[in-house]
Write a structure and sequence with these properties.
With 145 residues, this protein is mainly α. It has 2 domains: 1-82, no CATH class; 84-145, no CATH class. Helices cover 74% and strands 0% of the residues. The protein contains 8 helices and no strands. It has helices spanning 2-9, 11-19, 24-46, 58-82, 85-92, 95-106, 113-130, 140-143.
Length: 145
């Protein structure tokens, strides 16, 4: 629950930090450092046993942690600076649907009618929330791109 509260409140800090002169990369880097130090400290005290890492799994941690999380954070923070926080959050939560589509291509997973229905319903909800349907727009800043 604490993690969800921390993640949900992240967007509140982006615009003030951007206005102070920080760019998306610097904000993501600072967030990652704070999270890494906090999590490592907590695990060192509470669950030292799960800090063990097998060398053969190192590539997974580098790929998902450093590359995947870093890029997601940078793009999310950049997006929050460009469009409304609510729209950026909705776009972020389309990732499970992207994973479903990519899994079909990469891992040859079967896309069932139920998955297609869920994809259409979820995407429609995202579009309606963002305000594209009904004459909404992202922002003047985004339109300039």
């Amino acid at each position: 629950m604490f993690s969800a509260v921390c993640w949900g409140s992240t967007g509140l800090f982006i615009r003030p930090l951007t206005a102070s002169g920080f760019n998306s990369f610097e904000i993501a880097e600072g967030r990652s450092i704070v999270v890494a130090v906090s999590l490592f400290s907590f695990l060192l005290l509470a669950r030292r046993d799960i800090l063990k890492l097998r060398l053969k799994d190192l590539w997974i941690f580098i790929g998902m942690g450093f590359i995947g999380n870093a890029l997601m954070s940078i793009f999310y923070f950049y997006t929050v600076d460009m469009i409304a926080l609510s729209a950026a959050s909705v776009l972020l939560y389309t990732s499970p649907y992207m994973v479903m589509v990519m899994s079909a291509f990469m891992f040859k997973e079967r896309i069932t009618p139920q998955k297609v229905s869920a994809l259409i319903i979820a995407f429609t909800g995202c579009v309606m929330t963002v305000g594209i349907i009904g004459g909404g727009s992202f922002s003047k800043k985004c339109a300039e791109l």
